[in-house]
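Write out this protein's structure.
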Amino acid sequence: MFFGRPEYYPQFGFVESDQYGVTDKSGDNYPEFMCMELIKGYLSNSFGVSLSNQISLMMLITKIL
């Protein structure tokens, strides 16, 4: 997950993070906030994930890896 150019990164498989239920702590999403599953289906059963700071983002990325 990262902030990137939404017109560029989808060609590599990245999508807006809200497609996996990942938003900021207020429940908002931004087109630049993108993610991609590294393990197919890993985020398919997740929902309501809120990221409130960079530490949470790093923990989520660590979980994926």
